[in-house]
Amino acid sequence: MTSDTPYTSEDDVVDVLPEDLDPQAFAGAYKFPDNSRRRIPAAMYVVLGVGAIVGSVADRSSVNGGVLAAGIGLLTFGAFGVYSGRKMSVDERAALIASQQAIGFPVGHASAQQVWRGVGSRPTWRVLAYSGEVPPRRRALVLVDAVSGEVVEHLVEDNVEEAGEDA
C-alpha cells in the first residue's frame, strides 16, 4: 500500500481531493473562468440538434417523432447557451472598484461572487462590502454587470449586527 492511496486499512476510506483541486499545490492569483466557455458545449448542442432535425426530416420512415423533438430541444438549448455565453469584460477587481465608487464609503473587507441574473443568464458580480472601521459601521451589497461594468443596483445600510451587540 502506498501513501497516495485513500485507504488506511481494508475497511477505512478517507476522502482525498484530486490534484487539480488541491489548495496546497496552488500558487498565484486566481483567475475566475470566463463565462464565454459556455459557447463550446452550446455549439455542440446546436450541431447535434441540427443533425437530429435533418435526419428525422430526411428519413421519416425509419426515424420516429422523438428524434425530431430531441433535435428541436437540443437546438433550442444550444441557442440559449450561445446567447448566454457572453464574454466577461469585468473581472472581480474591477467589480470591487466599481462597487466602492457606487456606495460612497471607504471599503475595509469585501468579497465578490459571480452570479447570473435574468432570463438571459447575464453574468453579474455580487459584491458584499464592509466599511473600513473596526468594527465596521456600514455594509453594502452591490450588483455589477460583468459584461458592461455598469452597477445594476446597490444597497447600503448600517451594520445592524454590530449595532445589536452595542445595545
Q: How would you characterize this protein structure?
A:
The chain has helices spanning 39-58, 65-84, 92-103, 160-166, and strands at 107-117, 122-131, 138-145, 151-158. It contains four helices and four strands. It is extended. The protein folds into two domains: 1-87, no CATH class; 92-166, Nuclear Transport Factor 2, Chain: A (Roll), CATH 3.10.450. With 167 residues, it is α+β, with helices and mostly antiparallel strands. Helix 1 packs antiparallel against helix 2 (65-84). It has a four-stranded antiparallel sheet with strand order 1-2-3-4, covered by helices on one side. The mean pLDDT is 82.
Give the strand order of the largest sheet, numbering strands 1, 2, ... along the chain.
1-2-3-4
Number of DSSP strand runs = 4
Order of H and E elements: HHHEEEEH
Intertermini distance: 60 Å
Largest sheet descriptor: 4 strands, antiparallel
Total count of helical runs of at least 4 residues: 4
Query: Proportion of β residues?
Result: 15-25%
Average pLDDT number: 82
What is the general shape?
Answer: extended
Uncertain residue segments? none
Class inferred from helices and paired strands = alpha+beta
Radius of gyration: 24 Å
Helix share of residues?
Answer: 25-40%
Tell me the count of domains: 2
